[in-house]
Amino acid sequence: MERRRFLAGCGIGIAGFAGCLDGSMPSAEDPTDDAAPSPSGTPPENPPPHEDPMTEPDPDLDVGIENRSDEAQTIRLEISRESGGIVYEETREVAPETDRDVYNLERANPDGIEEFVIAAERGNKRESATVKTSECYGNAFVAIAEDGEFYVTYSIC
Predict the structure, then answer these.
(1) Residue pLDDT, tens place only, 48-66
(2) What is the DSSP string of 92-147?
(3) Which pLDDT tens digit goes with each residue over 32-49?
């Protein structure tokens, strides 16, 4: 859309120079208008407010498990509201080379933007991350690397 405005502005700008190309110079007898015309493409006096993705609710956030190792792994996954209350928990055997979604925060019916803790345990190691149900947060996942290390991560804008 910005490209269209730019190209339209270029066309208007070139048209404005059309009279300048005939080689004539303005004379003292020519009336002049001191008021400069407003250029095309200027922002409106009251532009619409910029929406901040961190302040816009979007509960559609998948939580997945990836196992990139060549062995099955047992993972305990728990998703809870930061304010309290478990919304999902499961212990599962994750096959090698698996990548699948197991839960979507939309199912928890968050009220606007809420924080959720995604915690995973494997053996005696626990990893967690906190995400929010805003447009800025993307999907979260528990990842098991090829070397067997695991972590919880998510994407964010």
Answers:
(1) 666 788 899 999 999 999 9
(2) EEE-TTEEEEEEEGGGG---SS-EEEEEEEETTEEEEEEEESBTTEEEEEEEE-TT
(3) 545 445 455 665 576 566
Instruction: Tokens for 14, please give them.
Output: 């070139």
Closest CA to 80 of 112, 137, 120: 120
Query: From CA 137, how far away is CA 69, in angstroms rounded?
Result: 27
pTM of the model: 0.67
- 3-class state of residue 90 by DSSP: strand
The domains found in the chain, sorted by start residue, are 57-156 (2.60.40)
- In a 3-state reduction of DSSP, which class is residue 37? coil
